[in-house]
Amino acid sequence: MDPITLGIIVALALVALMAIGTPIAFALGGVSLLALLYDRGLPELTYFGETFFERIADFGFVAIPMFILMGAAVASSPTGRDLYRSLDLWMGRLPAGLAVSNIGACSIFAALSGSSPATCAAIGKMGIPEMRTRGYPDGVAAGCIAAGGTLGILIPPSVTMIIYGIASETSIGRLFIAGVVPGFMLAGLFMVWTIIACKLAGGYQAPIAQTTERLKETVKTNVDSNIKALIRVLPFLAVVAGILFALYGGVATPSEAAGVGAFLCLALAILIYRMWQVGPIKLIMRDSLRESVMIMLVIACAEVFAYALSSLFITQTVAGAIAELEVNRWVLMGVINVFLLVAGFFLPPVAVIVMTAPILLPIILAANFDPYWFAVVLTINLEIGLITPPVGLNLFIIKGIAPDISLRDILLGSLPYALCMVLGIVLLCFFPGLALWLPDLLMG
């Protein structure tokens, strides 16, 4: 059987397994095993087991559970509440200030937790009820939180960037820094659309009372408590800044920086918020272990899947066929973006990266695209998948937070933010320096 036909059969089998609810890791591993047995026979079982364990024995993967632990410590503490209160005080006087402050809180919390679902849940639990109480449209209240939550996989530290770095053998520190400017650019686009949406919808109330006397009274009453809340958040921000400095300054490896960051965030959560009880700490460890095992199992099975595709010459054949197409490289990039967008509709970001990196990276390099720039473009595509059906993880998190908001309103409120992300990709194509300027400045 020729590699292209075999590749189509493998892809259809994988889609069929996931369509009937098979966990992604088991679907990847099962299809890989069957393909290898078909092509090589029973002796291939030995290589299957060796590949499964060898590929995740890389010390660099230690950074993944450490960053997850760091994010879990932040997400399980009242850090999100304090961050929300502080930004509401300083940004509440802007047009649509409460919604804008929610996006700002999502941006900063994303840097602290590195997780889109955690960001969406932590800020949404406080932000959505408050916005609805003050008269904001349900679509705006749900959409801005769902979109703001997606920034967790772009603004560093990001677990998906770590996985991309290991899969592509690129600098994780440089990947982190490449996501900074695009991440805050997207946050700015989200804020602009939020202000426009609120003005178009009408009927929302200003977050702070209208009269000057009431404004002064409110600020005087709340300023002390909000400043104290900000002071409690600053040590966590300092940890993130220290991690980035250690990475781009060459002081520590990603695994070392992640380990220190996880310890410091856990210690700060215990000391600042007095989480002395066994229950909260046990919850943090349980959530970290569960997510880490899930991600590592997906990575291990995806590595076996990549090995199977390579052994069956599927990867080489597809890459060669695409490379031989006489098309403009931007047309090729457009096709790749559509492919990533569709993949993100159905699969979580981690699975998409580890499954597609072996196929796409040779094509990207052959077309003379920068791998760090492509990492940002890929991540934004996967962010879109978090707020679009049929999977749309953030949409279902918002539904869980506000069950009385219809899924239709949540979806319609989120789609304009998906278009903002598409605009972000277009801007990155026209101005690659948005992703590359800061890493070049700091790391050469």
Describe it for me?
The chain is 80% helix and 0% strand. It starts with a helix and ends with a helix. Helix 8 crosses helix 20 (407-430) and helix 11 (180-201) crosses helix 20 (407-430). It has 444 residues and is an all-alpha fold. The protein is globular. The chain has helices at residues 3-19, 24-40, 44-54, 63-76, 79-91, 97-113, 116-133, 138-150, 159-168, 172-178, 180-201, 212-248, 254-272, 278-311, 314-323, 329-346, 349-366, 371-386, 393-401, 407-430, 433-443. Mean pLDDT is 80; it is low at 205-211. The longest helix is centred in the middle third of the chain and has 37 residues, at 212-248. It has one domain (3-443). It contains 21 helices and no strands. Pfam families: DctM. One of its GO terms (cellular component) is plasma membrane. Belongs to the TRAP transporter large permease family. Residues 13-434 form the TRAP C4-dicarboxylate transport system permease DctM subunit domain. GO terms for molecular function: transmembrane transporter activity.
